[in-house]
Amino acid sequence: MTLPATEEPGMLLENESKLFKEDDTLDQILRANDAKTLAYIPVIVFLSILMIVGTLGNVVVLYVYLVKFQRASVRHFIVSLSILDLLACTVGIPIEIYNLVHSLTFEYSFICKVLRVTEVMIACGSVFILLVIGIDRYIKICKPTMNMNVRTAKIMCITAGLSGSFMSVPASMLFGISRTPIGINDTKGHTCDFEETYKDSAFRQIYYLALGLIFLITFVSMSGMYIQIWVVIKRRRGKKTVLRAQSMTVPMTNLNDRLSAAPPEESSIVPKENEADNPKCKKNIFNFAGSSKKGKISRSAVILFTVTVVFALSYLPSLIVNICYAALEDESRTQRHFEDMVGKFFMDFYFVNNAINPVIYSL
């Protein structure tokens, strides 16, 4: 009878010490989380502005191109990109803001998976659509005898979106709740990162290597196509300058010769004869109409090329920061709040692409 009586107080003290230790650990995690949230305020404000501007801008773009714009391949390209951009502004950015506020107290694995899957799907889908855009611009400008009709453009945009969704499936397995050191004793918080089982797995490395190769091959291909497009446009502009100079000199020379040789009463109809008989005048008129159409093609090519460049520049800082973070220990990252904030700012810089595209379309 005496043995349980002596053990019961000891068990109570042990349980109380565990509770105090758990409370102390939770308090440490909450304080560390609040400190990181305070450091992330500039990033949160930045993302909030992008979310508002991007949501409004992409809604306007979708309305204009779905309701007002005529059926064309460019319409499908811009609508497809705007849908992905709107998804980033209404789903990706809000969850990322939640992630910044709960950087060490993230408890919902499903929300974490939605965030990472959305990021990969939007990035891959946008890359594939930009590749389709590059192919379409190349065909229209460099291979005018060929043509990508509206139906083909629509099918390719849908295929690009489905391909982006397929590439994001592994992210639903790789990402989840991870335990990360907070820099105090051995205390660890909960973050939205790679699952513990995949942190050092070969599958994670193979997946990101595949994504990197897809991005590299795509941008090399697009760069090659846009370089050829630029060469063709520059060559055409040079020809237009020569033809414009000829159309200004040759007809005037013929007109002066006819005026000097014709009787006074026939001089009034000489311009009409010259305009009717001179094939260069006819050619110049048709070139003006054709150059207007080519000018529209060139303008759309410049706009879509700008979208491609902005996409690459907005994702480049995130790529560089991720490479730098891969070489750092988690403890060193959590101890430097300012550096961590700057790193987080550039990691989320790719959201600029989703908000600025509507501005580019309006140029």
TrEMBL record:
It comes from Sinanodonta woodiana (Chinese pond mussel). InterPro entries: GPCR_Rhodpsn, GPCR_Rhodpsn_7TM. GO terms for cellular component: plasma membrane. Pfam families: 7tm_1. It is found in: Cell membrane. It comes from the Eukaryota. The chain crosses the membrane at residues 39-65, 77-95, 115-135, 155-177, 206-233, 301-328. This is G-protein coupled receptors family 1 profile domain-containing protein. The lineage of its organism: Eukaryota, Metazoa, Spiralia, Lophotrochozoa, Mollusca. Keywords: Cell membrane, G-protein coupled receptor, Membrane, Receptor, Transducer, Transmembrane, Transmembrane helix. It is a multi-pass membrane protein.
